[in-house]
Structure formats: structure tokens, C-alpha cells
């Protein structure tokens, strides 16, 4: 199933990026050396990240970050904000 139409990324490719350490939609795009375009795939990618991380062990850095969130850095896709989408 395609997750990102703009870059033809399917669910298997997104899962592979998550298995290799991606923890945000922006990091999935960076994994494939792409940038967010329309942003319509971001909510689905966020759901996939959440599902993936729900099964992670407590030693995962993203698990610790979820329980002790740090201030959010400037998103890499700030130019997409006119559309109300943040991929970080
Ligand atoms: S569908 Fe992913 S950026 Fe457009």
C-alpha cells in the first residue's frame, strides 16, 4: 500500500526506515533522501511510527523521549507550515 504518493513510498519502505531508526515522518523522508511535499502522508506515517514504537523496549531512545519530552526543535519542513503540516 502506498503511504506517500508524492515519493511513491509504500508501507514496507516506511517500515524499513522505522526499523533502521527513523522515529518521525521527517526522519523517514531523510532516510530516503527526500523532503515532504504535500504532507498528506504525514498523519499516516505518524500512526505507523506510533504503532512501531508501541512495541519498542524501554531502552529505545524514542521511548525515553516520549516519557521525558524535550522542547521541540525547529522542524525541518518549516516551509510546509502554510499548509499546517509538520513532519517532525
Ligand atoms: S503524499 Fe507524501 S509528501 Fe505528498
TrEMBL record:
Pfam families for this protein: Fer2_BFD (PF04324)
Composition skew (Low complexity), residue ranges: 63-80
Disordered, as annotated region: 63-88
BFD-like [2Fe-2S]-binding domain span: 2-50
Top-level taxon: Bacteria
Annotated protein name in UniProt: (2Fe-2S)-binding protein
Annotated organism of origin: Azospirillum isscasi
Amino acid at each position: 500500500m502506498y503511504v506517500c504518493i508524492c515519493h511513491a513510498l509504500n508501507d514496507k519502505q516506511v517500515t524499513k526506515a522505522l526499523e533502521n531508526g527513523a522515529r518521525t515522518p521527517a526522519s523517514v523522508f531523510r532516510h530516503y533522501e527526500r523532503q515532504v511535499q504535500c504532507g498528506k502522508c504525514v498523519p499516516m506515517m505518524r500512526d505507523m511510527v506510533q504503532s512501531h514504537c508501541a512495541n519498542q523496549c524501554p531502552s529505545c531512545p524514542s521511548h525515553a523521549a516520549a516519557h521525558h519530552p524535550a522542547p521541540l526543535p525547529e522542524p525541518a519542513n518549516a516551509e510546509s507550515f502554510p499548509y499546517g503540516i509538520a513532519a517532525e
